[in-house]
């Protein structure tokens, strides 16, 4: 189970990349098939309609086109989407220029040959790369337009019947309409999915805000109750005792040392209550010494065996450190509640590409994640982690333990570091 910010259930960026590769792969397959059809059509025209040895000049371009498309497919399989798109575009544009040079009357069909890679690349290429694609595509269109006008009436197959030429052009347009229609449909589906994701994310954000507001109200109520039932009662007792002692003193009575000890005890109790209350708001140890000391202290309070590995001494943004600390605390509390005999392993590391990563793993009995997806503890952790741009992943199954992984990709170390707690 993956709990991403505001409850999103998947890595949208990864899913979009996978969809883009599939779309480009389908286009490459169709483009290679169209090359085979084109070769067969040229052979048929040469054999049936007109015998012209000059037609052999077009075969090398079609063969190179097929080879470049095959190379693009292999590059795509290795993960380089932009390079694959560049190969597809360059191959189609080169063929378009060559075909218009040899058969100017194919200009209309070759315009689609130039345009299709642009339509293919637009949803998946951004910023400067998209600008380069559009600029080079415009140059290719200008080139075939100039060649078509300058070479009108020249080239090969100039003596064939106009009806045959028309039939070839119509067949080419129909053949190009299939992949072009596919690209338009895929673009429409991509935009529709993006709109649906945006609506779903907006709803999840609103739900998260409502939960955060509700949690804040509940927390304020808890603080009021804790102050009233704890520190306030001790301070009231201190005040009453001091008033009584002051009255005795004004009457000339002797102040008993036991009464003073009682006052000191009440003050100590009030201070302890306030420390506990402050601990629930923001741990002073985390503020002063950072994650290594604070997480180690939490582990020591845990009832079971906990091994802590903090592989970074850097300090991070206060909100990020707080999210890591409370996520770790909540995870260990869940272990205490559901698997008190289990041992746990807490790891905190900062990775250059991934960011700050917290992992809490236990060897307890585990659980079925889908049954606990709406659990208050998991939702609170997901909200806290998501509020600072992180993602929360919970992996578990019956009998194999549980692993909680919080990733904060935007977390950047500050200059000041801390000593790792022993």
- What is the approximate shape? rod-shaped
The rounded Rg comes to: 36 Å
Helix content: 55-70%
- In the predicted model, the low-confidence regions spanning at least 5 consecutive residues are 1-12
Beta strand count? 6
Major sheet: arrangement of strands: 1-5-6-4-3-2
Summarize the structure.
The protein is of the alpha+beta class and 422 residues long. The chain contains eleven helices and six strands.
Can you put this structure into words, describing what you see?
Strand 5 (391-396) and strand 6 form a beta hairpin. This protein has 3 domains: 13-204; 215-281; 285-408, Histidine kinase-like ATPase, C-terminal domain (Heat Shock Protein 90, 2-Layer Sandwich), CATH 3.30.565.10. It is of the alpha+beta class and 422 residues long. The chain contains 11 helices and 6 strands. The chain starts with a strand and ends in a 14-residue tail after the last strand. Helices cover 67% and strands 9% of the residues. Helix 1 runs parallel beside helix 3, helix 1 (12-49) packs antiparallel against helix 6 and helix 4 (107-121) runs parallel beside helix 6. The chain has helices at residues 12-49, 59-77, 81-102, 107-121, 127-150, 162-250, 257-281, 284-289, 291-301, 318-338, 376-386, and strands at 2-3, 306-310, 344-351, 355-362, 391-396, 402-408. A 6-stranded mixed sheet has the order 1-5-6-4-3-2, covered by helices on one side.
């Amino acid at each position: 189970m993956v709990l991403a910010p505001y409850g999103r259930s998947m890595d949208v960026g990864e899913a979009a990349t996978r969809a883009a590769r599939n779309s480009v792969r389908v286009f490459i397959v169709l483009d290679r098939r169209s090359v085979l059809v084109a070769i067969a059509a040229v052979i048929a025209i040469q054999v049936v309609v007109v015998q012209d040895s000059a037609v052999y000049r077009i075969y090398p371009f079609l063969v190179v086109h097929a080879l470049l498309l095959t190379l693009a497919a292999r590059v795509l399989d290795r993960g380089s989407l932009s390079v694959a798109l560049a190969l597809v575009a360059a191959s189609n544009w080169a063929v378009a220029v060559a075909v218009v040079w040899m058969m100017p009357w194919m200009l209309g069909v070759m315009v689609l040959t130039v345009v299709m890679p642009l339509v293919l690349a637009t949803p998946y290429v951004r910023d400067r790369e998209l600008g380069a694609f559009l600029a080079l595509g415009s140059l290719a269109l200008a080139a075939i337009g100039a060649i078509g006008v300058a070479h009108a009436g020249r080239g090969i197959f100039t003596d064939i019947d106009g009806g045959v030429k028309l039939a070839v052009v119509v067949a080419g347009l129909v053949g190009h309409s299939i992949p072009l229609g596919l690209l338009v449909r895929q673009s429409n589906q991509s935009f529709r999915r993006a709109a649906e994701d945006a609506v779903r994310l907006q709803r999840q954000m609103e739900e998260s805000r409502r939960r955060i507001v509700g949690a804040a109200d509940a927390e304020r109520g808890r603080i009021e109750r804790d102050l009233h039932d704890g520190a306030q009662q001790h301070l009231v007792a201190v005040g009453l005792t001091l008033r009584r002692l002051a009255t005795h003193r004004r009457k000339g009575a002797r102040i008993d040392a036991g009464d003073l000890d009682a006052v000191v005890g009440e003050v100590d109790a009030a201070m302890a209550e306030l420390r506990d209350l402050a601990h629930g708001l923001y741990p002073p140890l985390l503020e002063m010494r950072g994650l290594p000391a604070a997480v180690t202290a939490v582990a020591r309070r845990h009832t079971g065996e906990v091994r802590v590995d903090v592989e970074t001494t850097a300090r991070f943004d206060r909100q990020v450190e707080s999210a890591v600390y409370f996520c770790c605390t909540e995870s260990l509390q869940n272990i205490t509640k559901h698997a008190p005999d289990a041992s746990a392993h807490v790891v905190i590391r900062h990775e250059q590409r991934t960011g700050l990563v917290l992992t809490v793993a236990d060897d307890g009995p585990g659980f079925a994640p889908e049954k606990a997806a709406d659990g208050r503890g998991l939702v609170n952790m997901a909200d806290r982690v998501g509020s600072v741009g992180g993602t929360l992943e919970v992996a578990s199954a019956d009998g194999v333990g549980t692993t909680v992984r919080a990733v904060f990709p935007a977390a950047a170390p500050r200059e000041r570091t801390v000593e790792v707690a022993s």
